[in-house]
Request: fold
Amino acid sequence: TNRHNFLLADIDGYQGNYVGTLLAVESHPDRCGKWYEGDDMFFIDGQSWPPALHGTGTEDYFGMAWGVHRRYQSWDHGVTHYERGITDHDRFYDGRFVLYRWHLADPIPFQRSLHASIEAGHANDCAQLYESMAFWYGRKVS
Reply:
């Protein structure tokens, strides 16, 4: 389930569209887990498991593959900050990263609620630091 996932957005009582995610990660070699392996999950309108949209990995959701290896910008996805070498014993996925994904061409519509999250590593085995911002618009429903 998604109970231990990193929460991106928990919207209730609105009809609208989810249109983007900004994710910042600090991965440190003294903390366990490969942060880029977490699946994105979007539960629409109160549905239970499985989610309506279930991705295959953080790097895939943000338009990369096999990890995040460089700075990259596109109109709808990219890596705006890529900082390696925060310690002298970093793994290839350690550092500070800022990633974005816009859903402007493929918004995620919802009628009354949306619960968006991403696993903190594969099956939430990751102890890295996460921060995020979700972008959505909508109107209150009764």
About this structure: The mean pLDDT is 93.
